[in-house]
Amino acid sequence: MLSIALAGKPNAGKSTFYTAATMADVDVANYPFTTIDANRGVSYVRTDCPCLERDERCNADNCEDGKRYVPIELLDVAGLVPGAHEGKGLGNQFLDELTNADVIVNVVDASGGTNAKGEPVDIGEHDPLEDIDFIEEEMDLWLAGIVDRNWESVERKSRSPDFDIDDVLADMLSGFGASPKQIATVLRELDYPEDPIQWEDAHREELARLVRERTKPIVVAANKIDVAPEENVERLLELDKPVIPTTAEGELALRRAADNGLVDYDPGDETLEIGDDVNDAQREALEDLRETMAEWDGTGVQGALNHAVYDLLEHITAYPVEDAAKWSDGSGNILPDAHLLPDGSTPVDLAYAVHSDIGDGYLHAVNAKSNREVGENYELEEGDVIKIVSTN
Ligand SMILES: Nc1nc2c(ncn2[C@@H]2O[C@H](COP(=O)(O)OP(=O)(O)O)[C@@H](O)[C@H]2O)c(=O)[nH]1
Ligand SMILES: [Mg+2]
Q1: Quick one: 99 exposed, middle or buried, by C-beta within 10 A (0-12, 13-18, 19+)?
Q2: In this structure, which residue's CA is closest to atom 13 in ligand 1?
Q3: By C-alpha distance, which of 189, 158, 161, 185 is closest to 173?
Q4: Which tens digit of pLDDT belongs to each residue from 303-325?
Q5: How many Cβ atoms are within 10 Å of 15's Cβ, its own excluded?
Q6: What is the CA radius of gyration of the chain?
Q7: Which amino acid residue places its CA nearest to atom 23 of ligand 1?
Q8: Residues 224 and 364 placed together within one structural domain of the fold
Q9: Ligand 1 pocket: which residues have CB below 6 Å?
Q10: Domain range holding 91?
Q11: Ligand 1 centroid distance, CA of 53 (Å)
C-alpha cells in the first residue's frame, strides 16, 4: 500500500489530521511530543468511481454514490524541530520513521499561533513561511549524515575491479526507498568525481538532496485556515511548491458530526448539509466551517492526500474485473477492487498488483469500457476497468 507520512513541527495539527483522516483515536493535545511512536493507520484517496458512467451506482464497500475511496497508509510521525538531524527533540527517531513513506504531507500551522518549536504564541505572531523549508533541510542533512557514515565502505568497494557507483549507491539507499532507476537519474544530474575518495562533503550533500527530492516529495498542508489570517494562507499559496489549505480540526468535527447523523458530508466534499438535529451552538459552528470551506474549496484534508498520490506520486486508479460486460468479479460484485498504480503502468502491472500468479500467467487484457482487447504495452488511464485473462 502507498504510504503517506505527516511531518511538521509539534502542534501543527498532525494528530488531528491523522485522526480525522483515519478516524482512529490518538492523543490530540496542545503540547509537544504527544505522539511518541509513529501511528500507522488506513486512510483513503478519493476519486470518481467508473460506476458513474453506468446507469446504477456500484455496491463496493469503498464507493459512496460514485465517490470512490481507495486505501492508502497514513503515518502520524511525531513532531520535528529544527536540529532534529542532530538528535534534537527525538529527531533521529522521527526521521527514521519518515523513511517508510512514499510521500510527505508537511503540516504547517498557517495561523502563526505556534513558534518554531511548536509552543503556543498569539495567532499571527510566528511567520509560517519559516516552517516550510526546515523539514526539507532536516531530511537532507539527516540523509547526508547517513551517506557520510557509509562513505568509507563505498571507498573500499571502489577498489574492486567491477566497482559500479550506481549499484553501490542504489544498495546503500534502497533502505530509504530509492530505486536503482532513481539513483541512476540522480547520478546523471550530479557533477561528481569518478573516484569516491575524491568526493567532498558538498558532493554527498548534493547527492542526499537530490535523492530526498525524488524519493520523498512533499506537499504542504497550510493548516488551521479556520483561524489563520487570510494573508498568511495567500503567501503560502504563492510559494513555488504544492500547498493545500486545510482545517484538520474542521474535518475531524465534520466526520464526527456525519457519524452522529448531524450533517450530510463525505470526505472531500466541498461543502456540507446541516441536518435538523443540531442545536444552536452546533449550527453556528457548522455554518462558520461551511464559510471557511467555501473560501478554500473544502477542508483540504482529502485534497492534500489526493494531491500527494495523484499529483506528486503521479498514480492512477485501475479496476480489475472478471466479467467485462458486468464489470464484476466472479461473484457478481460490481467494481470490487481499485488499485493505485504509477502513471505509465500496463495491464501486466495491474495483473501483478492483483496477484503475482495472475501476473505470471498473463495472456491478454480487455478494456471493459470499450470492450476491446488492449496490448500489453497499453498505458492504463485513470478509471480504467480491465479484464485480465491469465492462465492462473
Ligand atoms: N483552529 C484549529 N486548530 C487546530 C487545527 N488542527 C489542529 N488544531 C489544534 O492544534 C493543537 C495541536 O494539534 P495536534 O493535532 O495535537 O498537533 P501535532 O502536535 O502536530 O500532532 C490542538 O489543540 C488541535 O485541536 C485546525 O485546523 N484549526
Ligand atoms: Mg501529534
Answers
A1: middle
A2: 13
A3: 185
A4: 999 999 999 999 999 999 999 99
A5: 24
A6: 23
A7: 30
A8: no
A9: 8, 10-16, 28-30, 34-35, 79, 223-224, 226-227, 247-250
A10: 3-128+217-308
A11: 39
